[in-house]
Amino acid sequence: DQQVKQNSPSLSVQEGRISILNCDYTNSMFDYFLWYKKYPAEGPTFLISISSIKDKNEDGRFTVFLNKSAKHLSLHIVPSQPGDSAVYFCAASSNNQGGKLIFGQGTELSVKP
Amino acid sequence: DGGITQSPKYLFRKEGQNVTLSCEQNLNHDAMYWYRQDPGQGLRLIYYSQIVNDFQKGDIAEGYSVSREKKESFPLTVTSAQKNPTAFYLCASSPGGGRSYGYTFGSGTRLTVV
């Protein structure tokens, strides 16, 4: 049972435009959400996070939105740059899972010059 | 410079052999994790340890074993019982609970069965 789902395996956007990556979850006990960025043959690196008490968190070009009623979060990258091309994973955690992170399948973003 | 070191970066295994993947961290983190990445399946949890001398199975523990004798080290053994071991393996650590700052990941080990 996939508790965290990223239904788009890939996304292609033009440099300078907005990239929107989506993530859905099923477990209502999740209360902390994170986005990671991964380049090929490297480990993921932390990008941005959001607590369930918020609906938005912003860090430079990256903004994460959380819609708890829809069990949906999204990552906005504005403006997109070619260096943003990578696989993006969303992850979720809850107290009753011992702090483990549950990851989605990932979305491969390609930003074209 | 603190971080997580995974070795080797590439590993080839013959069928029927056990292999051990190394993971060492100098971040003084209590918790450590092993994930496996396969195309289209994201990161799946194999084993995790929240304290020395204790570890728990993740979602896909069959065919794998771990030990946590030292805080800094969390080696993963891929046994011959693992039916499809070819994958990219990632080790991670967190201060504890994986909450506020998420995980710090190593650079991964690509295991190929030949």
Q: Main β-sheet of chain B: number of strands, strand sense, barrel status?
A: 7 strands, mixed
Count up the helices of chain B: 0
Quote the average pLDDT of chain B.
91
Query: What would you report as the Rg of chain A, rounded to the nearest angstrom?
Result: 13 Å
Report how far apart the termini of chain B are: 36 Å
Distance between the termini of chain A: 38 Å
Report low-confidence residues of chain A grouped into runs of 5 or more. Answer: none
Overall body shape of chain B: globular
The fraction of residues in strands of chain A falls at over 45%
- Report the strand count of chain B: 11
Helix coverage percent of chain B? under 10%
- The gross shape of chain A turns out to be globular
Q: Helices and strands of chain B: which structural class?
A: mainly beta
Largest sheet of chain A: 6 strands, mixed
The percentage helix of chain A is: under 10%
Number of strands of chain A: 11
| Helix and strand element order of chain A | EEEEEEEEEEE
Secondary structure category of chain A: mainly beta
Low-confidence stretches of chain B: none
Strand % of chain B is over 45%
Oligomer: heterodimer
Textual characterization of the structure:
The complex is a heterodimer of chains A (113) and B (114). By secondary structure, chain A is mainly beta. Chain A has strands at 4-5, 10-14, 19-25, 32-38, 45-51, 56-59, 62-67, 72-77, 86-93, 102-103, 107-112. Chain A is 0% helix and 53% strand. In chain A, the strands form 2 sheets. In chain A, strands 2, 4, 5, 9, 10 and 11 form a 6-stranded mixed sheet that branches. The model of chain A has no long low-confidence stretch (mean pLDDT 94). Chain B has 114 residues and is an all-beta fold. Chain B is 0% helix and 51% strand. Chain B is globular, with a radius of gyration of 13 Å. Chain B starts with a strand and ends with a strand. The chains are: A mainly beta (113), B mainly beta (114). The interface between A and B is medium-sized, with 24 and 34 residues.
